[in-house]
Amino acid sequence: MKIKVKQKHIDLAPKLFSKGVNAKECCPISCAVQDKFPDKLVSVGWISSPQYENKMFHESFYISVTDPENDYEEIIKDNSISNIEDCSRFAEKYDNGEKVKPFEFKIEEKQ
């Protein structure tokens, strides 16, 4: 499934954050994924766990899609996101207040 992070997502994210939405749920990447999974819980960010401290920065980045009506079962598999490094770089730039541009990536849904 192709995910397109569009300018509308980049513009929407700070509005959601200013309304008190959790930062992991209002990143432009999260907004774009939410468009494809409107009834699911979407979260993005970096895992802060000792097991990731010696990993490359992008290796601790995650995009989580869970089903709140099915005991929060994961909808996407580990390693099912293409260009995770690009996603991590985009999120880092966005979080640092740098200008970001729309981009695309793919998610394989769990079968």
Describe this structure as you would to a colleague.
- The protein is of the alpha+beta class.
- 30% of the residues lie in helices and 29% in strands.
- The protein has 3 helices and 6 strands.
- The protein has helices spanning 7-18, 28-36, 84-95; strands at 2-5, 41-46, 61-67, 73-74, 76-81, 103-109.
- It is globular.
- The model has no long low-confidence stretch (mean pLDDT 83).
Structure, briefly:
With 111 residues, this protein is an alpha+beta fold. It contains 3 helices and 6 strands, in the order βααββββαβ.
Order of helices and strands: EHHEEEEHE
Count up the helices: 3
Mean pLDDT rating: 83
Main β sheet profile: 3 strands, antiparallel
Biggest sheet strand order reads 1-6-5
Helix content: 25-40%
Helix-strand makeup class = alpha+beta
Question: What are the defining features of this structure?
Answer:
111 residues, globular, alpha+beta
What topology does this entry show?
Blueprint: E1 2-5, H1 7-18, H2 28-36, E2 41-46, E3 61-67, E4 73-74, E5 76-81, H3 84-95, E6 103-109
Antiparallel strand pairs: 1-6, 2-3, 3-4, 5-6
Helix pairs in contact: 1-2
